[in-house]
Write a structure and sequence with these properties.
- There is one protein chain.
- The chain is 28% helix and 20% strand.
- Strand 2 and strand 3 form a beta hairpin.
- The longest helix is centred in the last third of the chain and has 20 residues.
């Protein structure tokens, strides 16, 4: 599932390619991917301009000039592609937004969605999300306060979108590795210096992932060489049985909170 870095990468690219452009056509191939009747969705989107694109947690928000917002969550298996008809991936497209002779294809939205809401309803949908880990408001003091409210495993807390928004299975493993802390440790077991290291690791891992295009398998446009670049930089996630780059131990995997969790016992304590 795309996490904060992947959605931030998409946001940056979308701002380059469709910001300020008018949606010239809309195609709905899967009604379940939207939240209103297709004719209503098309009426509210077609011939309206994209005025602003924002990311919140794992969501993208496309602001339209009529006051409506397209709220995207790709969920498991979802991705986007932008290009001309000749570049269209050979995959089933659930929703398509056209901008003249170029199109934004939403693919793999079997669990994901592209909903349209007004500003008030959008705020309600996102109201329970925790702080954005890369925002200026997410300070060490805020983090320490949040941690005091939790007494569960580190892995479980990092996955909790009400605790901290945007971090999922993959980056929770990488953050724990960067901080040299085992993901099954309880938050109430962490020493002060470990909390500081964890805070720094959250920001460092997410920023590095964004700068390297996240881990998405598919490029966003023809010739896109950035998207997916972080996959080669993963230290533990998906590397069970391989040698740790830092200490030479064997990377292990176990289920924590019903998620496959990867770590190194050699250098995480």
């Amino acid at each position: 599932m795309p996490e904060l870095p992947e959605m931030e990468n998409y946001k940056l690219l979308l701002n380059q390619y469709i910001l300020g452009k008018t949606v010239t056509d809309v195609q709905i191939n899967r009604v379940k991917s939207i939240n209103v009747p297709p004719e209503d969705f098309i009426r509210k989107v077609k011939l309206h301009k994209i005025t602003y694109i924002e990311r919140r947690a794992k969501h993208l928000l496309f602001y339209l000039d009529n006051g409506n917002i397209l709220l995207l969550h790709l969920m498991l298996g979802g991705w986007m592609y932008y290009g001309g008809a000749a570049d269209k991936p050979k995959r089933t497209v659930q929703v398509q937004l056209s901008f003249g002779d170029h199109h934004l294809y939403f693919i793999g939205l079997r669990l994901g969605y592209l909903h349209i809401h007004d500003v008030k309803r959008t705020a309600e949908v996102l109201s329970e999300l925790g702080p954005e880990p890369l925002s200026n408001e997410f300070t060490m003091e805020v983090f320490q306060t949040l941690i005091k409210m939790k007494h569960t495993k580190l892995k479980s807390v990092l996955l909790d979108q009400n605790f901290l928004s945007g971090i999922g299975n993959r980056y929770s493993d990488e953050i724990c590795y960067e901080a040299k802390i085992l993901p099954m440790r309880g938050l109430d077991q962490l020493e002060k210096d470990e909390v500081i290291m964890l805070y720094k690791s959250i920001k460092e891992v997410l920023k590095t992932a964004i700068n390297n295009g996240g881990y998405m398998e598919h490029p966003f446009f023809k010739g896109d060489t950035l998207t997916g670049g972080y996959e080669a930089l993963l230290n533990v996630h998906g590397r069970e049985g391989e040698i740790c780059k830092r200490c030479g131990s064997i990377i292990q995997m176990e289920n924590i909170s019903s998620r496959k969790t990867y770590y190194c016992k050699g250098c995480q304590i």
